[in-house]
Amino acid sequence: MRPGEKAGCTWDMLKELVREKYYPSYYRAEMERQFLALQQGTRTVDEYEREFTRLAAFVPDLVRTEAQRAQRFIDGLFPAVRHNIVGPGTQTYARAVSIAQEVDTSIKREAVRDRAQPSTPVQPFAAPPALPAPQPAKEKKRKGKGAQTDRRTRQRQQPIPPCPTCGRLHRGECRVGEDICYYCPEPGHFASRCPKKLQ
């Protein structure tokens, strides 16, 4: 210190002077905006934590305490991760990060396992197969029971492709969306109240 100078510069004042010189107020305002909008999104927890730490350095007032820092971190996590770590024991930032990493790893393992298992499409209800076109009476008599049994066996052996309209497995014309009975293919009522079924 030179003679005649006042000894009034504190460490906090020096930090503020350096911050103002290298990080002007407009830059800090932009970093604050980014910090407040920060979400994990498609990042891993580790990537999100690095970005959180980088931006938090510009906004020390928003993360003064360990609990504030932990809560801000948790708030930006992906919902599936966040819902699994909220609760007692996450008051420290380090603990919140650790739990988030464990949950993130667990979710990824489950996703890999689910992809490895073949999935069968869930069908809430399946429309009965469409009725085959009626054959003339003469043809039925000529063919006899043996021919009909053979035709049914062949139909069962061939795989039924999914319907392009409803996605279910059935043969013939798709009747989904039509106001018809799936039991007797007549319009005006549904299978649950079909007069032919109730007889």
TrEMBL record:
SMART domains: ZnF_C2HC. It holds the Pfam family zf-CCHC. GO terms for molecular function: nucleic acid binding; zinc ion binding. Keywords: Metal-binding, Zinc, Zinc-finger. InterPro entries: Retrotrans_gag_dom, Znf_CCHC, Znf_CCHC_sf. Residues 111-170 are annotated as: Disordered. Residues 126-135 have a biased composition (Pro residues). Coiled coil: none annotated. Residues 181-196 form the CCHC-type domain. PANTHER family: DNA DAMAGE-INDUCIBLE PROTEIN 1-LIKE (PTHR34482), RETROTRANSPOSON GAG DOMAIN-CONTAINING PROTEIN (PTHR34482:SF49). This is CCHC-type domain-containing protein. It comes from Striga hermonthica. The lineage of its organism: Eukaryota, Viridiplantae, Streptophyta, Embryophyta, Tracheophyta.
